[in-house]
Amino acid sequence: MPHILIVDDNDTNLYLLESLLKGNGMTVTSARNGEEALNRARLAPPDLIITDILMPVVDGYTLCRQWRADDLLKAIPLVFYTATYTKPEDEAFAMNLGADRFLLKPQEPDVIMDVVRELLQKHGAKQAPPLGEEMEFFRQYNDILFRKLEKKMVDLERANRELTIQEEKYRLSFENANDVIYTIDENLHVSAVSPSVERILGYRPEEFIGRPVSDLGHILSPDSFAQMTAEWRLAVRGQTIPATMYRFIARDGSVRHGEVSISPVMRNGRMISMLCVARDITDRKRSEDALKVSEDMLKTVFKAVPNAVTVLDADGIIRNVNAAAFDVFGYPREEMVGRDARFLFFSDEEYSRTGEALYGNPGATRTSVIESRMRRKDGAEIWILLSATALDAEKASSGAVVAALDVTARKNLEIRLRQSQKMEAIGQLAGGVAHDFNNMLQAILGYTDMVLFSLGPDDPNRAKLMEVYKAGRRAATLTHQLLAFSRRQVLQLAPLDLNQVIEELMKMVHRIIGENIEQVILPGHGLWTVSADRGQIEQVLMNLCVNARDAMPEGGRLSIETDNIFCDEQDCARHEWAKPGRYVEVSVTDTGCGMDKATLDKIFEPFFTTKDPDKGTGLGLATVYGIVRQHEGMIQVHSEPGQGSRFCVCLSAIEQAETTAIPEAVESVRGGQETILLAEDNEAIRLLARNILATSGYRVLAAADGEEALRLFGQHGSKIDLLVLDVVMPKKSGRSVYDEIRAVRPDVRCLFVSGYSVNALQTNFIAEGNLHLIQKPYKNLDLLRTVREILDKPLF
Question: What's this model's pTM, rounded to 2 decimal places?
Fold first, then answer.
């Protein structure tokens, strides 16, 4: 039964391949990396190995190279099965290393099994026979003996008597030698040849004995024969020839490489014999050639890889860099080699931190990875992902190969994402605070309004109470700004021509910014229409103009420009909420003091301001940010200290042209006899609204939550003329109550009340469904007017 070894660091891949092979009647052993595979194979050699390439500890390429260098394993077929494939050169490289097949994942089971069966049939199960103790002895003994033999030959005249004594021992060594040993007499005839010649070249020893060396041309290439003839002549004169490489031709025509050393035996100044030792180095030569090819390929990869690759010695000195290092760091090769790598880092502290992370563990020899701040030649700060691998797997301190990947763009995106998430969190907090504060203001302003209505014009308390009312309205304005930042306002979207909006708004802006600031309006030609809330967009423009005015206390220029732009995928990658498409851009530019990076990082945060406490709340730009985001738009800021600032707002364009709103006639507020179902979970506001409506003659059924509202409707449904529902309530929301009642009475009228819910989706449905909404804190008359307008409006 064939035995297959599979190597993969992925459990799923191992399971699928193991199931396939076992299902076809084979035994399977698995390993998770090349080192484990080698250990298992040496203990129990398989009939075939299937291995992945990218694995920890020892990868597939290294495994293949060591496999083919192992005498016990090198005859066993090896198949690469990998999902990592980029170019045909990858497969060629694998095959050059000695792989028998190169398969790509995923592969059909039939294809895999066909390859396995083919290789098993072609190669069979090959195992190297163990060496016997006697042969091992002679092998070790011969290596030592022949080294001594060369020295003995030099001293041959002095050692004749010892040579006779050792003749039998040498004969045994001669007959069992791995190398080819042959002797040449004084007439340059071959006098002896060891039996190993037949194993290496295929010729029997007797085919050479007695023949002159001039007849040996058939076993050497022409150039090697000419070279050896010249060296025989030197040996005749007593010169010892060190090991020299020759190309031999075996009986079967194959080429074998051998190293031959020649030691002449001299007597009375005359050569009486030559002892020659020829060692077969064919396998070594092939390995050297393969190594050279591999080294050449690695040099090519080193030069061509797009990441910066640096070779450091044990002292951290740069010994080599590839061409990509210039693209990453801006230094040419000659300015990097020979220098301590410290100069590339942002600071000495960063250098120390990185070094500790990469090399801090003395026993670590695997690749280590860390992100580090570094600096280009032009001074620009960059973020680099560094991976270091020790040059010597046994000694991490021997030096390292360090690959550097520039991740600055990714790092900047992460920073922007964190900033966006922070702004979102602040927005949620601001929206929640404003929602609760609006409920309190509703009660304060509502009851104040009722008391004011009951006081006569000459009442001494009226002026004091009016100040309370004014303070409440100012607080309501502040909550509106918080809600604009948190994007919790319900938008009244309509088609807008931003050129027209700017033209009408600038009449007011001119009075606000003063005479010492020049205004330049550059309207774009053929400007597209946008869908936006006009009041909110006017708020954005006004806040940006006021911000520009404050940045130019000594005067300057304020420019407002509009244009049509198109955003592609790359542009939208900078803003997670943006989509590719057509946009209208409004840019507001000033020539003021500008801002540094620290200010820019916090500019849209609520309550952040660079102004004096009595000159700014810190909500102006936060409001701008919230409004733009709620419109699913984009906003960018470009500024440097002393160079002014430029705010760019982009809103999605639509096809529809702007429509002009026709103002409705304002009717006087009157009461009525209708029945109103009021649902409000805030007790103070519920009592206030009930009093306001009841005072005007309406019959009010009040509920503290959504479920109570449904119960009251079940009892009085046919008599109810209008629903007044808070959007967010416990148990059931205002929308849920409305949907359930509408299922019973599709013609029911409804007015929603919102303190700006935490989830904008809970209020946006009102605008999308063309429903009615009054926002807290509302004025008493506004509530009565809105109720009357809805009741008087025809159903159809």
Answer: 0.36
